[in-house]
Amino acid sequence: MSGLGVPRTSKRLTGSRLTVQRAGKQRRTTRYQALRFLLRVTVCVLLVAVLVGLRPVAAAPPTEPEQLATEWAVAIDPLLCPIVRAEPTHARCLARVPAGQAALAPDGTWWRLRFATRAEASDWIARLLTTPGVTLVEPAVRLAYQWTPSDALFPQQGWLTVTGFPQAWDDTTGRADLLVAVIDSGVAAGHPDLAGKLVPGYDYLHRDPEPDDEVGHGTAVAGIIAAAADGRGIAGGAPGVRILPLKVGDQSGASSLLIAEAIYGAIERGARVINLSLGADTPSATLERAIEEAYDRSIVFVAAAGNTPDAVTFPASYPEVIAVGGATADGKRLASFSSRLTRVDLIAPAENVLTTSWDGRQPGWEPRTGTSFAAPIVSAAAALVRSVAPDSSVEWVRQSLRETARPLDPPGQPGTGSGLLSASGAVQRAVLRRFAQTWQRTDLPVAAGYATRSWLWGPSAFAVTREPYEGTRSGTRAVVYFDKARLELTDPERPPEDPWAVTSGLLARELITGLMQTGDATFVPRQPAAVPVAGDPDDTSAPTYATLANVLAAPPLAEGEAVVQTIDRSGRVGRDEGLAQYGVRAGPLVPETGHRVASVFWDFLQQESIVYESGQFHSARLFWPFFAVTGFPITEAYWTRAKVGGTERDVLVQCFERRCLTYTPENPPGWRVELGNVGQHYYRWRYGAVSAGPIAGDPTLLAPVEGSRPR
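Now predict its structure.
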């Protein structure tokens, strides 16, 4: 079987799906041509072996070569070999083949053939190689579970803390609607740590809907991913997600054809992550094609790198796969048994991994060793990333895992990839992605020079942190401060397409009232902010936020009335009829707060301009939903004299719940109406000085990211 492999053209790890898809068909055609030639040679060798009574050399038990030599995969070209949809569905060019037949791929381009004897298989496979419409044939490959028996009990889940899962849980424990497919030996549905965590699966080995675990391997893998955090037993890395158990193997391992079939099943069932803790040193085109299909459907596929240091393991070596090597229990070194030759993306603990166990009679918990148990740790982290960033691509998830991994010392060791998994770092990257998507819609066009207008958020973030907030899982939430506002992600599992998933804080209201919000209905009283609402920070004449507390209850002007009201720092309100020259009038009344929006601000909020959505710049409503960015008005509009760039000017100010808007008639077009620097003002009021210079974790550095949503 090893003679069937051909060198693969490497794909860029961070390349786009489009690049992979375009290159995939040509690459596979070349490989298939080479494989057909090599298979002809192999089949001839097998025929000779059958005639002279020789046994093919294999490392498996004596019965395995016989079993696998009778099971083959056949790929067809539907144009030359049409699919007949009449019951039973079959490929016309395979109609005369005396073998049990079942479609592997839903589109009928791949078939599994099971012959009664090896001699019959050899005879018909030789014929199929010359049959028009048959593009490839290959025998099934036996994949082995990637684990090593371990006797040492480990009473605590050190792997959780070593890889940073508790910190990741501040944001998510995994969405309940996210499915992780465990393609393995089955899963024990009766294990108390997995009760309620499984969706109905399938047993591809025995062809029934009960994927019971006869080995215990799949149960151990499933527990690492999603064991319930219910106060007993252990907790999985992503205890909020659900497991789709797909049984493909027994004590001896699993057939590559059954695994391929299970992958197609996982695709059809809506899995977002697939874990495969099995491997072989022989490639399989059938299995590879199924993995490519999963990749093309944006499904993250994680596989174990293998337990033989000097061997290459498949399917971990395929570029579509996130390949996981094994680290020591403390995460400081590469495990002695982990493959140094397989292409590895990153590593996770593979020694004494405490997880769920099943011996066929009763449940338990035991430490396990092997890259089989490192892979589901990464699958759990990928599930958390996908819970926060469900619209992320496979390559974005891979990049997040790799770029946040902690390199070993020294870095660059063979078999370590980018280093040790940091679940907290990867989830934090997903959170920053959500902030980047909100920022990029309106401010990326400004940064890229496609729009000439003022910033809605700011050119970059100056602080990324967590703040106390009641009602969240951890009592905190992630926030990012820009010059103009603060962005908050209170519930990271809320879908990105929800326009209220990422919110902008009620900062202006807090600054004016002095009530700092620490929950949906909880506030900490402080002094209103003595910070100028508009103009230069050192201006001593312009009104402050504290000043505006005196006019929150002021009655609205009549609709269409000229706005000539003035206010000074002391809060004294007056009128200056000369300000009518600017043509600003009282606009529509907002009943929620009883204030009118000044005409210049109303026009500003109604404008269409260049935004960035769905990977392109185009014209659309800048503010959507209408008051999502600003909140409702909480004051009327007032003129004041404020220093702007050291020069005193007429400035119109109106505060909303989230923002304060300014209108400076002397500014150039595009900057006459601006959103005030409420983000900076609030940060100074709450924390002190604003940091200068670039910061780590600035979400604008991630932009543009795919999956942008309207805002």
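The chain is about 25% helix and 25% strand.
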